# Entry
Amino acid sequence: MTEDTRGAGRRRRRSTKISERLEAARRRNLDQLAEQRRREQEVEGALAEFVEAGEDIAAAERTAEEKIIVLQRKIDGVRADLRTVTAASHDRQAQAALRIHEVGGRTVEQVSDLLEIGSVKETRRILAAARAGHDPAVEAQFVSASAQF
# Structure
């Protein structure tokens, strides 16, 4: 008994319709893979853009901080100059207030009202500063009171 083994190893030929459907499915798969790669590339590009923009923001913030530091130093210098320049004027105001009080015979309350100083307590500090001469500790107290002049 000999069997015919020729047909057993052969594949059956597909019909044209099945071959066309298979080819169409392969094309769709390739198209989907291409679309997926395009999307991944777009995401990669967006990630790179996001990181680059973040770096730009950080650089701009560093630059702004550096400028702010420079400007703050200038502001501090201007304030120091202002304190130096106005110290003598504060002394003159304190001396004038003391003259009004002592020579003018005005009470502390009257001096406070006349000079529109915020409170009697502040007026007493100003008069004490004038009696003590120029004292930086008393000067700081006078600055807050003289801001109302």
In short: The helical segments are 16-102, 108-114, 120-132, 136-146. The mean pLDDT is 87. Residues 133 and 141 are 14 Å apart (CA to CA). The radius of gyration is 45 Å.
